[in-house]
Every structure is written in C-alpha cells, then in structure tokens.
C-alpha cells in the first residue's frame, strides 16, 4: 500500500537536529526481509519479541547482545504478534489468513498449540483481550472475534470497514468493547458481544478535513487512512485519561477521548455531531468555560510532525507510563510527543514534540520498554531491530 510522499517539512531546530544523530543498538536474528512487528514484555522487563517476513519470531533480552532464541512460526511473512494478557508464556502470531499460538517456554522447539483459520483474507493485526477473546482484522474489511477458551468463532464484525481493516484493539476497561481502523479512513468502536457499532469517526469526511486549521498543506494528496491504533493500559498518568491514539495516512496523529465518544449522544452537548479538529487541540461542549473540555488532539507537521503517512503509534512504557506518545512513519522518522499537556483541561498548554529521530528507513512498527534505561524499539524495512535509548 503506497502513498504519495508529501512536501518537505521546514528545517529542523537545533534540538531536533541533535536528536537526529542518535545511533541505535542493532539486534540481529532475522534471516531475511523486513522486520514487520515487535512487542515488549511487561512481565519480563527488557524482553522483546520481533517477527518478520522470514516467518520467524525472534526473542531478545536487551541486557545481552545476541538473540535468545528463534521460533520458526510460519512459512510466510508474519503480520502481527501479541502476548496473552496476564500470561505472557503464550504469544499469538498471524501469517496470511491464519493465527498461531505458541508456548514461549518451549523455546526454539515451540510448535503451534492452536491454529485459527476463520479469516477469509490476509490478516493485518491481531489483539487478545483479558477475557480470552482474539480479534483479527483483515484485508476484506472484516474483523473476526474468536473465543480462545471455547476455541470457536464468537462473532464476525461483517464489513466493519468498506476497505481494508488495518488495525484492531480491545479497550481494557471495557471488556466487551473493541476499536478498529481502516483504509476507509474510519475509526469505529464496537460492542462485539452484539456486533454493533458504538461510534464511528470518519477522518475522510469534509467536516473533519475542512475543520483542520492546518489546511492540509503538503498533505492534501495523502488520504486520512487509519493505519494503526494504540490503546493504553487503564490508569495511565494517575488514571484520568481513557484515550486512544490514531496513526493516519495524511501524516497526522490523533488522540481521542474514548469515554467522551462512547458516552450517550445526549450528554455530549449540541456540537457533538459536527465537531471539528485543529492542529493543536479541539474543544467541544456548549461553549461555556466550565463545561468545555479537550476531547481530541491533532498532531501534524505544523507542530514538527510527520511529512508522510504515519504507520504506527504507541504509548510509552518508560518514565511515567503513558506520558509520551511515540509515532513512526513513512518519512523514516520517529516522533516522541508529550501529548498529555495538550489534553488536560486544567492547563492552557499545547501538546509538544519532544524528540525527533531520523531512523533512515520507513518504520513498520515500534514499541517501548524499560530496563536499566528507557528503550525505544524500532522495526523498519531492514532485517535488523534497532534500539534507541530515551532520552
């Protein structure tokens, strides 16, 4: 899926230029092709699993130099991997239209414990909930919800998107809710027990596009496809934020207040149906100062953001968990944002770009972890996993 490259951004500031010179550690283990995705263990700090076009899952401990072991998981490219919440001895991987589960404790001898083959088209992302449900988003626009305990198909979100469904995540604090994004430029939340939509945001709609104060200059040829969604753990930054981040094809990153969007329409005020977005932040409500709250943040190139499609986004595991938002894009850069400053209704601050890293190649995926130092793990179009220290 290729997109037109955008116009060049303004020259970087001295701080940004210095950040561009960072040299990463390189983790080698994949045989060939690009590294497509990675996931950091929360139960084992410093342990990272990556998967790639060689069909292998490589396990790394950031305290050591070499790969710990490799699982030959599939005979085709792996598109997505994730741990089982609450028990990271088990990992799931998707390849083609199939999903495999593995017991990590078996090491390189691990064979699939279970194979799920409910999707009719190539799977782009998988996610597992704490209740044992497995979601798989595919090229047909469908999302399949599998009950891994009873080992059966629980629900099909038929034609969840009118184009490729690129991303799916469960919402941890709402156990029957999933959120999806697609190349129809829509972000949708679902009650997957009933198979019905709870809300949908169309980033391709004239209301949202015309409402952007950035005017889409330099980005007008890139549709606002939803490439990736990140939903943080419950209770980040002390608990007040229940949000998701959206990586968009037009180079923007959005942070959306999920609880506001999921609230009944009558509680949102008269402007809810036609809300607009700015390059800094959006205020919704009835216009009174005591009820107006920031409900979405829009981070784009006018703030030093991406100049091409954003491929992935993640909330930070280091520092104060969730304080930073990390995005990677087709412009071969990784951006680290202090997003919560712009989301708080108690301050007049704006979200801020705090670090810009030139990674030289298009970014496929990224994640963060913390050991003795804070680490940013980047998967690009090479077969090497790159590790950057932050700050």
TrEMBL record:
Q: Keyword ATP-binding, does the record have it?
A: no
**Pfam families linked to this entry:** WD40
Note the segments forming the WD repeats. 303-347
Please give the Gene3D superfamilies that the UniProt record associates with this protein: YVTN repeat-like/Quinoprotein amine dehydrogenase
Q: Can the keyword Cytoplasm be found in this entry's annotation?
A: no
Q: What is this protein called?
A: Transducin/WD40 repeat-like superfamily protein
Report residue spans for region: Disordered: 1-25, 269-291
Q: Which organism is it from?
A: Urochloa decumbens
Source superkingdom: Eukaryota
Which PROSITE patterns does the record associate with it?
WD_REPEATS_2, WD_REPEATS_REGION
């Amino acid at each position: 899926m290729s997109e037109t490259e955008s116009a060049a951004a303004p020259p970087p500031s001295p701080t940004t230029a210095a950040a561009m010179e960072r040299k990463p550690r390189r983790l080698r283990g994949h045989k060939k092709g690009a590294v497509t995705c990675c996931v950091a263990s929360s139960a084992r700090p410093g342990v990272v699993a990556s998967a790639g076009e060689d069909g292998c899952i490589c396990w790394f401990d950031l305290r050591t130099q070499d790969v710990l072991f490799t699982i030959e998981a599939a005979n085709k490219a792996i598109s997505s991997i994730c741990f089982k919440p609450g028990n990271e001895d088990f990992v799931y991987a998707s390849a083609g239209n199939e999903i495999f589960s593995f017991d990590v404790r078996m090491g390189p001898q691990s064979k699939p414990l279970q194979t799920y083959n409910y999707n009719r088209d190539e799977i782009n992302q998988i996610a597992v909930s704490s209740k044992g449900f497995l979601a798989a988003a595919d090229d047909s626009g469908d999302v399949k919800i599998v009950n891994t305990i009873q080992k059966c198909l629980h629900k099909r979100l038929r034609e969840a998107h009118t184009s490729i469904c690129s991303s799916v995540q469960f919402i941890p604090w709402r156990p029957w809710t999933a959120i999806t994004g697609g190349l129809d430029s829509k972000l949708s939340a679902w009650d997957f027990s009933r198979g019905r939509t709870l809300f949908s945001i169309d980033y391709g709609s004239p209301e949202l596009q015309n409402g952007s104060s950035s005017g889409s200059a330099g980005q007008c040829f890139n549709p606002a496809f939803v490439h990736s969604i990140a939903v943080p753990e419950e209770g980040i930054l002390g608990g007040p934020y229940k949000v998701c981040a959206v990586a968009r094809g037009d180079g923007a990153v959005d942070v959306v207040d999920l609880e506001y969007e999921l609230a009944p329409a009558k509680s949102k005020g008269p402007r809810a149906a036609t809300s607009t977005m700015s390059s800094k932040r959006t205020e919704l409500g009835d216009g009174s100062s005591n009820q107006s709250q920031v409900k979405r943040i829009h981070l784009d190139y006018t703030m030093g953001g991406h100049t091409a499609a954003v491929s992935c986004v993640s909330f930070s595991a280091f520092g104060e968990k969730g304080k930073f938002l990390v995005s990677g894009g087709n412009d071969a850069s990784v951006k680290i944002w202090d997003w919560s400053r712009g989301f708080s209704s108690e301050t007049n601050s704006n979200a801020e770009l705090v670090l810009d890293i030139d990674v030289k190649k298009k970014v496929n995926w990224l994640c963060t972890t913390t050991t003795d130092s804070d680490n940013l793990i980047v998967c690009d179009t090479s077969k090497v996993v790159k590790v950057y220290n932050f700050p």
